[in-house]
Amino acid sequence: MSKNTQHLRHILELNLAMLFISTSGALGRYIDMPVPVTIAFRAILAGIVLFLFCKWKKISFGVASADRFTIIVGGVLMGLHWITYFYALKMSNVAIGMLSLFTYPVITSFLEPILLKTKFQKMHLVLGALVLFGIYFLVPDFSLENSYAKAVGLGVVSALCYALRNLIMKTKVSNYHGSMLMWYQLVIISVMLLPTLFVMDSSGIITQWPWTLVLAILTTAIGHTLFLFSLKRFSTTTASIISSIQPVYGIIIGMIFLGEIPILTTIIGGTLILTSVVIESVRSYK
């Protein structure tokens, strides 16, 4: 396989990961349980699936003592990212929830040179600004009195947690299998949120289990593991900007399954975001 063909395959694999992860928008809106309970079941079920996968593939669960703290912090950040993101979805719609989260490529482009000591690329700021400009068209009135503005705020907090998690996990993906790393993060999230199953109403799982299972397996176990693998092949910022196609997928899924039809400004914002994805894909391909 030629280098160009292999690189194209990696881009396609990253886009497949984004398609799977983008189902979180519609599922987060549809599943009728308290957010912490939903995330707890998501982590527990996905953790079981990944544990069985790692056992089947004979993937080692060994972690160097020097890396344990980093992986724990990554798990905590992942849990905070999911919780704030799902609250943003509940308070708005798929478009607002997903696109407020996608300030994270901009945040990543600022943090990566600082945390990972990589070379600062001005083009990433330009593309990040284009993504941000696209989000501007999708966000309604920024009045703090409406739930959409609060949802955007939670989305940005979720974006910060996600950017930090990706950056610190970037330092570990070359040393460990992606599925094993994701499993440890799911264990951490499960431990964090296990008490919510006893203090909040978790009876909804009786009727919501099929969709929770899809969220756990397709969105989480498969989608996020594929994304962790992509961090081996691209810089975190490049992967983040390419993954900006995720809201486009999510909005389409929301249209089909939830009937949330985007208005003109949503289409304009989505077009701007997709433009940044195409530009970065071409740049990384070259």
- Overall pLDDT confidence: 85
Report the sheet with the most strands, covering strand number, pairing sense and barrel closure. none
Shape: globular
Helix segment count? 13
Radius of gyration: 18 Å
SSE string: HHHHHHHHHHHHH
Q: Considering DSSP H and I runs of 4 or more, what fraction of the residues is helical? A: over 70%
Number of strands: 0
Strand content: under 5%
- Runs in which pLDDT lies below 50 for 5 or more consecutive residues are none
What is the rounded distance between the termini?
17 Å
Q: Name the structural class.
A: mainly alpha
Domain EamA: 16-138, 151-279
InterPro entries: EamA_dom, EmrE-like
Transmembrane segments: 12-31, 37-56, 68-88, 94-111, 123-139, 151-168, 180-199, 211-231
Organism: Aquimarina rubra
